TrEMBL record, chain A:
Protein name, entry field: Carbamoyltransferase HypF
Superkingdom in the source lineage: Bacteria
Molecular function (Gene Ontology), one example: double-stranded RNA binding
Species classification: Bacteria, Pseudomonadati, Pseudomonadota, Gammaproteobacteria, Methylococcales
Gene3D superfamilies: 3.30.110.120, 3.30.420.360, 3.30.420.40, 3.90.870.50
Amino acid sequence: MPLNLLRDFTIREQLRIQVEGTIQGVGMRPFVFQLAERCRQSGWVANTGSGLTIAIEGAPELQRQFLDGLNNPPPPATIFSLSVDRRPLENFSRFEIRSSEAEGQSAAFVLPDLAICGDCLQDLFDPAGRFYRYPFTSCSRCGPRYSIIGSLPYDRERTAMAGFALCQDCARDYRDPGNRRFHAQTIACAQCGPVLSLHDRAGNRLADGDRVLEAACGHLREGSIIAVKGIGGFQLWADAAAPVAVERLRIRKHRPAKPFALMVPGIEDAEALCFLSGLERQALASPAAPIILLKRRPNAAVTEAVAPDNTMLGVMLAYAPLHHLLLRGFGAPVVATSGNRHGEPICIDNAQALERLADIADCFLLHDRPILRPLDDSVARVINGRLTLLRRARGYVPQPILSKTILPNALAVGGHLKNTVALGHDLQMIVSPHIGDLDCDVSVRQCEATLADLRQFYQRGPKLIAHDLHEDYGASRIAEREAQRAEKPVQTVKVQHHYAHVLACMAEHGLEPPLLGVVFDGNGLGSDNTLWGGEFLRIHGRGFERFAHLRAFSLPGGEKAIREPRRAALGLLYALEPERAFERMAPHFSAAESNLLASALKKGINCPLTTSAGRLFDAAASLLGLCQVNRFEGQAAIALEQCAAAVESDLVYDFRIAGEGTCVIDWQPMIEQLLTDIPTGNHGLIARKFHNTLAAMIAAIAERAGEPAVALSGGCFQNALLVEQAAGKLKTAGFRVYCHEKIPPNDGGLSLGQLYAVKYLG
Amino acid sequence: MAHGGGGRLMQQLLDTLVRPVFRNPVLDQNHDSAVVEINGTRLAFTTDSYVVKPLFFPGGDIGKLAVCGTLNDLAMSGAKPLYLTCSLIIEEGLPAADLQRILESMQQAASEAGVLIVTGDTKTVDRGKGDGLYINTAGIGLIGEQVNVNPSAIRSGDSIIVNSDLARHGIAVMLEREGMNFEHRIESDCADLSGLVQELLQNGIEIHCLRDLTRGGLASALIELASASRYEFELGESALPVREDVRAACDILGFDPLYIANEGCFALFVPESQTEAALAVLRRHPLGQQSLAIGRVKSACSQGRVILQTPIGVGRVLDLFSGEQLPRIC
Ligand SMILES: [Fe+3]
Ligand SMILES: [Mg+2]
Ligand SMILES: [Zn+2]
Ligand SMILES: [Zn+2]
């Protein structure tokens, strides 16, 4: 920080200050204005595409005070860099907020969408105030941001609020430096701002204005499903205590078992459903307001259908004034799940929602403020004492991950499932919101639109496009098309899946090689064209070396075996004793299945080999009778974790480490002992020992590798018990351990890792 | 070799290696057979090599396949096949009785189709250098005056029709080759489709395009046509005909029937207004009794693509796979 420069400032002159940080749309200019008045400075402040520019003229002593104050802006503003130039005096008569300079590179750190603040919440329920029951109230500290910003710099005319001209009262508040809404671009009231309306499936208007809320609550009470247009898109709401309503939503959404998220108005309501730690409480109430996975109370007042056979509930707090009004009217928790059709991106547009959600929702709660880009609710979980994002979107995007060294302009397109894309330039890496699975036509288009949006928003054309080794991933196809379409030549770069996972973890912690990356994952294509997923990668300055991996086994039926843990179990047992494998698994396969799969395994037909740790979890869950066929992604692994979490134990199974060069971790002793335990043992204890053993494998390989730093990544590290065990063992042995926090350990993090890989191109 | 699956690698091999070398306007038609004009007469001309293992399978053998396959390639240009050639590459040690059976099967298929096998060649290779027998056939056929069957004739709104259920050939051959024990006997659909095509033409059906759904199955064929014609095709998943036993085998083995080879199945593109008429003609013929409209051509789109509408109303993108299908889910 150049504050020491100030010693030289003995004569009176103008200071020109450039500020970068998350400073647009957080009341930074009003703050600067008030600070300037307090320090008796004349001059001006303006948003620029790259941040904020300030000119001050006044007593040097007070200029120093001004800079001190500037360095401590009110949250959620954060300053990343601040530079000061001296200029000749221009003798300004006063301090003013100037309209924005449109030029300048768009490097400004745009804020994510912010949950309603405490002051606005009070306004909402203050019958004396002019914002009483106004569902779109916000101030310079809260409200939508990224979801409504068309382009930079952040001013009302470039946002979704452009169509709402300020009424006299709002205009007065907007200009009043003493007001919380001073220069708040989202300011609006019932006189001038967006309005609600309620519609049936055919689009017919059922209610307007304040009556919408009451009518919507009535529908919820009757067991209807309501599509609610919120901040980053639509949600589907249903009464969380009503089995009929929730089952109806399951059937219509073609989602038989995957847990639904809940929304409640306040922290006490979350407390009534779940056990909360301090960190969980803090995360729930943060401006990002993510869905947090929480341990469910046995007497939680929601129907079993919300999260069948699950010990956790996903809960979020109301984050928009509309949610507060609805929930106060309804008086009980609601299911609030993404407003999309199975596999598609979340709907953001009224007409699109009426069309695509017509078979799901009974009625539609709409408003006329456009949503410019889809932002799902983010999902997080406290893992090993840290808040870990599992799905990153609203509330977090587009906060950049900062690099310590300059990056080339590059795009990274991610993988295939849970996809995100990322853009890198200078010191910034911006990861897009969660897009969805690229099997689906609409998601592919959304992915392409997101790439275009990022490029437009940050005014950057890429020199490099990074993608996965797997050519058939939806994103790899997109990368190919992007490269063909580009005006200037663009280099495409292939990044191995699990290497990208480790790099994502390194990027978010600003780590440099060397280190040991442990990737316990589902499946990804390895450099040798086999399916990897239980990998220990030694990361060096030019790539990685596969230091060790789990012993491989077959996946009978290929992709089918990823959805059916019983097949992973069959493949695993087949590697031990082919004959016994079919005997053991006989209860879970028909004779026709056994016959065909026996030949398929023998001849290696659609039975790819994998070293995946995720499939090892699936196999164990199947052997323990927890899950034979997944009804949603990760179901078996979640069941195994929850089964294990019920038991405390330090016991481990045996395993072997073999191999010259690349070590192979042989799970055979573990599986044999596990099979011996199953008939008489406590299944919770067996599952627990399985977890402990995998953690012990990690620690044992880390010892062999001898790198002091270890990064854990891959989908399996969404498993809190596994992370706690592994990190615990590693720390005890003296390793520095890094886990994901800001970026998901699952494939949602691939794009960031691919982007970071361009730093290490040979 | 991963290039053999009818997938992207084969496409790339052809596009980057083979086509550029031979480049000429006829080859660039990029169709199952070449259409050449000789003294005002339009002929379809094609060749294909057959390397199927095993040589005999339920529903056919390599001989029948070598005749029907080439006849079908001619028929897909709207041609009436006339003459075939036959080249045999015989591995030393192939039982004479087997060869006899195969040649008779070729002759039977040819005479049923009303074509003559008029020339050929025979070579032998050392034991271990072939899989018993490879056959190459080439064929020529005559194209009627008004006939213009070509990917470039595909138009927005066209109906896409298939004449038969899908995936039988690939599954039948695999079950036989691998000695798999399955509760149902599945027979290849191997058949000569040229008669069926002639029926359509004689009944005045305006055929825009035809494609036999061989290697890579329905999906690969349609993806190629979509990108050649630069249209988006939409298929209804629930409309796709796959027999229960075939579907069961696919489910168990983890195969997608849309990508499995057929040898007696085509996709037919006709104007929407002719859909019913075409179906009526097809259904009168033994090889077309199960004919169904499975989708349609939507709007033009620069890349060309095929979208499968699932029963729950979500559009799945169909893609050519790079050789061996490795799982994409993590
Ligand atoms: Fe992965
Ligand atoms: Mg052919
Ligand atoms: Zn506020
Ligand atoms: Zn107003």
